[in-house]
């Protein structure tokens, strides 16, 4: 079921994108290109219900009360003496008109509904804008944003974003950004390029660390070195395939070049990008700010430098800070380290103004092609179609709220007119990625469209969309549906998020840079109240909005169909370009290419002294593990854990159901059971009414399959279903009542509906294969090692995609209904349940008593629990699998078995993974030009990976060389310290009250185990790492490698080592 969230229609392509959900507004797919790949996880599939929960393997905790030791190489520190934090922080005694450190206070607001105080300032000399949000939250955030308005698709803004992070005046080392990831306790570090701005945000809880990072970020953005070699490494360069052999193939290389090839081979991103470029002609939005691979080689080094001086200037800068640290210190630091070297530059302000799109007088139609989908399913349903309408400028927050709300009313979930007319009718299989209201750009747009359309239905789809809008303009919307969406806003507003400040940094900036008031979106309640007045007594407020949309002549109609030559055309154009360059190369040019390549390689190989960079010391890491207190009890016979947390009036409920003894023939159907359990209708509610009821009374309602590995033994993984939901405290009984209906009175017997849901599931899975390449590769490899891995593949791997395809093609709906009903019969067994509730102290008794009444009607069936052992039936000789997909880059995953959480070697392996990642970053990203590569330790696996990688064999070599390197006395104390810092910045990153203690409950990890792991991680020696490398990664240990990538004749003909498999 599609619910209110930032992944309303499709997830964002950057797994680490932060956004507007913080202020209760959701968004359509917006393409931002980001630098860091450090958060690539196993969950980059949009179809989140088919994925295992990331909570399962991510044990975090939070520390307070730090002891600070005297700094080593440190950036100028405003103050190192202990300061009062959080609720006890010093009050800020600034008033409007005050001047301080070159800034003037222009506005102060007390946002009571969010318990925040906002301060807007202007830098007097340069006009730089500044917004500070004062709050008790100790997860402080900084970001600096520049308006960047490219006038071509060479990716200049994006390449600049990468290159600024490659060394600066004060920090002239090759890669300060990636080095700081290992020298800091940051809670977030990234940079991204949006269509009209570039942002550099970070978060940290530690004051010293905060200023270290601020120093590096300010110096990187305002005073970067922008060396030509970095431009060639990050942007583009010519190189011979064999570096010194001019007879070998000439190639374009570069990190952004490959990143964009990967990004645009994802059909979702490609569609959204094309839709934007055509709807906003003759503005900066008609270009791809990330860069078109064919245009990127046109960018010159001089143009890169010019773009920097024309955009990265304080007169075009927006500073944002958030948290409990004192703004006065921030202002002083920014003034002294940066702004006092600049004066106002009016011409920059003029240059980055975004003009209005000249309005069309009639609808414009375009036809596009895209790469074929990864699996040849539904061959007759290949068309995509959408209508986009250019709306208004985006400064008005109330208009944004109204349009987002209207978009929900029309599109979200099964009780909306567009869903019924377009998807439930079977005309389309899913919405297009641009569907919804988008207010990220200077002018907003509203789009509706479908994918998986038959050629002969295209006209009908267009008519249906228009007629559905006309009908809604006539009839309006049911009051309870309106209320259900308003309730979701209220819920989102109360829900406490650990990354609230970061989300604001991302979410407020698009109002701000387009000239709106960045504080106004924080007043959600006020705007909702105003909306309630507008729609009171059935006034046709939304109807008039729809009429406005229909009357707007600036409409873009896109039809897209796959063309198997689509990628080949691009590849041919690239080759032709290279051929023509080669034909004109003189001897001298050839020598220059070789010399440049060697020079770059020598530089990449050079050991560098990074001691000029500030850092946190190991002694800054808290030794004591912060305990999370809980109370374990039993409700009748059901185990219950109670977590007392400051949840701001919300009750969170979770339950696991042990399904280890569920008959094996039903197990593959568990993810489908979980996906559809709240989509079929239950009790007196049909599926549409049920959707509205869930949104009226709950939030975060979901059911998912869950595998949790035992902390003691990898062979013992628990096979479970996880129920999860939350509600405002006064809705607790309503929430449990919905669960009772869904579990005990489900309306499975609806073959027509099931058929539609399955087709939608299939379409979304197949569309998302390119963006989930790495996750599928890893899951497939993991299936060779353990029962947990085997189930992972069955539930969230390619096997699950195949099963879905098979169900659609066999079309035996009654057979499937029978299986789902049997699973349902099994899981209502109370003896298999285990519950957890999180709420504030005053609400615990009430919540427990509601839970007890909820559990009563569930029967005790004693289905029993067991440990299912792993039987590997696969061919043990070939240990490398290759899946050809229509992509231009590879996703590579090479895996070894690891050890359970409490094993002595587990923490050593965790540090080793980080050390090896540092080695591989240089080989795979810097030299190889891949977007990312490294080693991760989770799910019982040690996984070597690369992501959007132009190479394959070279990368596999690099994996093996990294292991040899670790055995040859090469690991240094510095490597270990960097690894420890980076582990602890994850380990101690803040968690929201609703998530605290949950992962520990799922996996049975105690405070003592965590303390023991902490002690081990802090006391690791080089010999420990060498020993585990020898023990787990040497040649005698079984490994399994899986690759998803473009057809590769070398690999596919090497049948001794490789198994070519069909998706
Ligand atoms: Zn990038």
Walk me through the topology:
Elements: E1 33-34, E2 99-100, E3 103-111, E4 116-123, E5 129-134, E6 140-147, H1 156-164, H2 176-181, E7 186-189, E8 192-193, E9 197-204, H3 207-222, H4 228-234, E10 237-240, E11 250-253, H5 255-264, H6 267-279, H7 301-311, E12 317-323, H8 327-337, H9 346-351, E13 364-370, E14 383-393, H10 397-411, H11 417-424, E15 430-431, E16 436-438, E17 443-453, H12 458-475, H13 479-494, H14 500-513, H15 524-535, H16 541-551, E18 555-562, H17 566-584, H18 587-605, E19 631-635, E20 638-644, E21 650-658, H19 670-676, E22 681-682, E23 685-686, H20 687-697, E24 699-709, E25 717-728, H21 732-744, H22 751-767, H23 773-782, H24 787-796, H25 798-810, H26 813-827, E26 833-839, H27 844-855, E27 880-884, E28 890-897, H28 904-927, E29 932-938, E30 941-949, H29 953-967, H30 973-987, H31 998-1003, H32 1007-1018, H33 1022-1033, E31 1039-1045, H34 1049-1053, E32 1059-1061
Helix pairs in contact: 1-7, 3-8, 10-15, 11-12, 12-16, 13-20, 20-21, 21-27, 22-25, 23-24, 24-25, 28-29, 28-30, 28-33
Bound molecules: zinc ion (ZN).
Pfam family, one: Peptidase_M16_C
InterPro entries: Metalloenz_LuxS/M16, Pept_M16_N, Peptidase_M16_C, Peptidase_M16C_assoc, PreP_C
Family: Belongs to the peptidase M16 family. PreP subfamily.
Question: How would you portray this structure in words?
Answer:
The chain is an alpha+beta fold. The protein is 39% helix and 19% strand. The chain is built from 34 helices and 32 strands. The strands form 6 sheets. Strands 1, 2, 3, 4, 5, 6, 7, 8, 9 and 12 form a 10-stranded mixed beta sheet that branches. Strands 13, 14, 15, 16, 17 and 18 form a 6-stranded mixed beta sheet that branches. It has a 6-stranded mixed beta sheet with strand order 19-20-26-21-25-24, with helices on both faces. The longest helix has 24 residues, at 904-927. Residues 1-31 and 36-77 have low confidence and may be disordered. The protein binds zinc ion.
């Amino acid at each position: 079921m599609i619910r209110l969230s930032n992944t309303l229609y499709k997830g964002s392509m950057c797994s680490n994108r932060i956004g507007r959900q913080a202020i209760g507004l959701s968004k359509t797919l917006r393409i931002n290109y980001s630098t860091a790949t450090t958060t690539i996880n196993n969950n980059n599939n949009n179809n989140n219900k088919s994925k295992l929960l990331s909570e399962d393997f991510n044990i975090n905790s939070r520390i307070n009360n730090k002891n600070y030791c005297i700094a080593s190489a440190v950036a100028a520190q405003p103050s190192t003496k202990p300061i009062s934090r959080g609720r006890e922080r010093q009050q800020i005694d600034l008033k409007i008109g005050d001047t301080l450190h070159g800034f003037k206070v222009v506005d102060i607001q007390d946002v009571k509904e969010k318990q925040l105080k906002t301060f807007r300032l202007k830098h007097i000399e340069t006009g730089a804008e500044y917004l500070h949000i004062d709050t008790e939250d100790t997860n402080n955030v900084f970001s600096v944003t520049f308006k960047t308005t490219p006038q071509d698709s060479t990716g200049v803004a994006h390449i600049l974003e990468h290159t600024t992070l490659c060394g600066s005046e004060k920090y002239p080392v090759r890669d300060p950004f990636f080095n700081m990831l290992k020298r800091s306790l940051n809670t977030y570090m990234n940079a991204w390029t949006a269509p009209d701005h570039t942002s550099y945000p970070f978060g940290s809880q530690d004051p010293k660390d905060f200023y270290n990072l601020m120093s590096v970020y300010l110096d990187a953005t305002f005073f970067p070195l922008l060396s030509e070699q970095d431009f060639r490494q990050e942007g583009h360069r010519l190189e011979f395939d064999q570096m010194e052999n001019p007879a070998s193939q000439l190639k374009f290389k570069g990190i952004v070049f490959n990143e964009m090839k990967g990004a645009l081979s994802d059909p979702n991103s490609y569609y959204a990008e094309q839709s934007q470029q055509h709807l906003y002609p003759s503005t900066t939005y008609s270009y791809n700010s990330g860069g078109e691979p064919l245009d990127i080689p046109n960018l010159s080094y001089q143009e890169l430098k010019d773009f920097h001086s024309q955009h990265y200037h304080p007169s075009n800068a927006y500073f944002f800070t958030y948290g409990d640290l004192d703004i006065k210190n921030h202002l002083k630091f920014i003034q002294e380290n940066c702004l006092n070297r600049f004066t106002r530059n009016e011409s920059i302000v003029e240059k980055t103004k975004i003009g209005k799109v000249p309005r069309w007088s009639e609808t414009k139609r375009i036809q596009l092609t895209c790469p074929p989908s990864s699996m040849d399913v539904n061959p007759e349903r290949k068309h995509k179609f959408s209508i986009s309408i250019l709306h208004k400028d985006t400064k008005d927050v109330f208009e944004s709220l109204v349009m987002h709300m209207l978009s929900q009313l029309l599109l979200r979930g099964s009780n909306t007119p567009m869903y019924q007319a377009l998807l439930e009718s079977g005309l389309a299989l899913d919405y297009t990625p641009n569907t919804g209201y988008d207010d990220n750009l200077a002018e907003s747009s509203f789009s509706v469209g479908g994918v998986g359309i038959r050629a002969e239905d295209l006209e009908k789809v267009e008519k249906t969309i228009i007629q559905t809008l006309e009908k809604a303009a006539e009839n309006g919307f049911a009051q309870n549906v309106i209320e259900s969406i308003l309730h979701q806003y209220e819920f989102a507003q109360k829900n406490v998020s650990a990354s609230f400040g970061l989300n604001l940094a991302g979410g407020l900036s698009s109002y701000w840079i387009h000239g709106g008031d960045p504080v106004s979106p924080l007043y959600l309640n006020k705007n909702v109240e105003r909306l309630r007045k507008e729609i009171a007594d059935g006034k046709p407020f939304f109807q008039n909005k729809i009429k406005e949309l229909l009357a707007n002549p600036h409409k873009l109609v896109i039809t897209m169909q796959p063309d198997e030559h689509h990628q080949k055309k691009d590849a041919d154009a690239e080759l032709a370009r290279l051929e023509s360059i080669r034909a004109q190369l003189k001897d001298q040019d050839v020598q220059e290419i070789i010399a440049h390549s060697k020079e770059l390689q020598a530089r990449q190989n050079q050991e560098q002294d990074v001691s000029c960079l500030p850092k946190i010391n190991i002694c800054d890491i808290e030794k004591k593990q912060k305990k999370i207190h809980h109370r374990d009890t039993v409700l009748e016979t059901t185990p219950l854990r109670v977590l007392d947390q400051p949840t701001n009036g919300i009750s969170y409920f979770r339950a696991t159901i042990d399904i280890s003894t569920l008959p094996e023939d039903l197990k593959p159907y568990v993810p489908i059971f979980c996906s559809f359990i709240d989509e079929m209708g239950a009790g007196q509610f049909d599926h549409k009414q049920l959707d509205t009821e869930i949104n009226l009374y709950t939030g975060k309602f979901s059911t998912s399959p869950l595998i949790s590995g035992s902390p003691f033994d990898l062979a013992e993984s628990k096979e479970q279903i996880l129920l999860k939901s939350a509600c405002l405290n006064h809705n607790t009984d309503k929430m449990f009542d919905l669960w009772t209906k869904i579990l005990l009175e489900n309306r499975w017997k609806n073959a027509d509906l099931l058929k539609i849901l399955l087709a939608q599931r299939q379409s979304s899975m197949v569309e998302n294969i390119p963006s989930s390449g790495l996750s599928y590769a890893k899951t497939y490899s993991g299936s060779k090692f353990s029962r947990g891995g085997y189930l992972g593949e069955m539930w969230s791997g390619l096997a699950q995609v195949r099963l879905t395809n098979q169900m659609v093609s066999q079309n035996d709906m009654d057979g499937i209904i029978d299986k789902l009903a049997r699973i349902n019969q099994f899981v209502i067994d109370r003896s298999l349940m285990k519950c957890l509730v999180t709420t504030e102290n005053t609400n615990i008794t009430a919540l427990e008593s509601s839970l007890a009444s909820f559990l009563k009607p569930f029967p005790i069936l004693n289905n029993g629990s067991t440990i299912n052992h792993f039987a590997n039936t696969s061919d043990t000789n070939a240990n490398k699998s290759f899946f050809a997909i229509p992509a231009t880059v590879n996703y590579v995953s090479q895996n070894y078995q690891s050890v359970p959480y409490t094993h002595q070697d587990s923490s050593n392996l965790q540090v080793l993974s980080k050390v090896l990642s540092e080695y591989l970053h240089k080989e795979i990203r810097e030299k190889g030009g891949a977007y990312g590569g490294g080693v991760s330790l989770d799910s019982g696996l040690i996984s070597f990976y690369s992501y959007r990688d132009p190479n394959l064999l070279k990368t596999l070599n690099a994996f093996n060389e990294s292991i040899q390197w670790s055995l040859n006395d090469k690991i240094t104390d510095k490597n270990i310290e960097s690894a420890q810092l980076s582990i602890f910045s994850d380990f101690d990153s803040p968690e929201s009250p609703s998530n605290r203690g949950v992962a520990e409950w799922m996996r049975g990890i105690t405070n003592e185990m965590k303390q023991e792991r902490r002690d081990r991680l802090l006391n690791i020696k080089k010999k420990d790492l060498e020993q585990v490398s020898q023990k787990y990664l040497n040649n005698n240990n079984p490994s399994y490698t899986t690759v998803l990538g473009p057809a590769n004749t070398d690999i596919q003909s090497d049948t001794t080592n490789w198994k070519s498999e069909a998706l």
